[in-house]
Amino acid sequence: MTETIEPVPDRIDQQQLAQQLVEAARAEGVELVGPGGLLTGLTKTVLETALEAEMTEHLGYDRHDRAGQENPNSRNGTRVKTVLTEIGPVQIEVPRDRDASFDPVIVRKRQRRLDGIDEIVLSLTARGLTTGEVAAHFDEVYGAKVSKDTISRITDKVLDELGEWAQRPLDAVYPVLFIDAIHIKVRDGQVTNRPFYVVIGVTVDGHRDILGIWAGDGGEGAKYWLHVLTEIKNRGVVDACIVVCDGLKGLPESITTVWPHALVQACVLHLIRNTFRYASRRYWEQMARDLRPVYTAPTEAAAEDRFAEFAATWGGQYPAIIALWRSAWSEFVPFLDYDVEIRKVICSTNAIESINARYRRAVKARGHFPTEQAALKCLYLVTRALDPTGKGRARWAMRWKPALNAFAITFAGRIVPSNGS
């Protein structure tokens, strides 16, 4: 009986080769990273080998092949070039041909950075580092000098991508839309505090979808919001069941103009957050406990009773808080008619707070922006980092099926999950 010998997987061969290289480097006292390190040498070898293979394909014959003597074009030595890689600067020898028609792909003409470097710059910028801090990072970690202008040009590459993202088609129906604002300092003649509005949708499949970012000019009203919401509708959104917002001027009227059947809901999180702005920090925990029975009440009547108790406790000390809730009461109470699962979606901090926290970290590091476009670019880079595909989506972190059932019953005929959701 002949014994069958199973082939050794390539992955094992690669692991053994890597282990041998590491052991040999250690034996010779060679560092793994840094100038003259093992990884630098390997990267140099791989890039030069790939370039040499490209030259062979370009000319149609191998190096030192006699067939080259009859070819009108031939190799013409090499030129030294330094490229920045994920492990630092690597000096390579790029082959040349006599008629200068060789156009390599692996390291293009005039290319000084491998593509992975651009992604590192975009990732660091999205995490709040300024151009100066990114430059310092490359100097300290990779020993590479990258100017602030170069970093700015790299991040400018996403501007076209931002335009495409802002115009991409959207889903037909969103069970919930959240509208929130983050204030950013922009220098336009003088530094002013500008609102930038983020619209986030929860899809019928339970995804969080950032629909877009709009720069306000401080004069928001019905006309402004009608323009924004009409743009969203024109991108495919024919229905929104609940729109959660913070009482922005003209917004409720614009919502019902664009989507007549939408329910406008005052954002409970904003109400609570604004409540704390009027109170001393030492009372926040106790005040939060006293407010919870109000927004978790089973009915409007029960909520009125609980709020009367809250007002009796805190109204004398903080009358502005009572006025705040009373002024928002008509847009708050629809919340009490919803199923508990729908309430969880509306009150979930994952939808707005986690995203806004990322935005604020990135914005805070810069102080202010020279232009509106620069601020939008920063916010988009953060959005892009949430989902590398550039769709601005991230998985909704919650139990979705119970909420989907509640939405389907409450808004019968308007919520239809996709296949496989």
Automatic annotation (TrEMBL):
Q: Which PROSITE patterns match?
A: TRANSPOSASE_MUTATOR
GO MF annotation terms: DNA binding; transposase activity
- Sorted UniProt keywords: DNA recombination, DNA-binding, Transposable element, Transposition
InterPro entries documented for this protein: Transposase_mutator
- A GO biological process this protein is involved in? DNA transposition
Q: What does this protein do?
A: Required for the transposition of the insertion element.
Q: Which family does it belong to?
A: Belongs to the transposase mutator family.
Entry protein name: Mutator family transposase
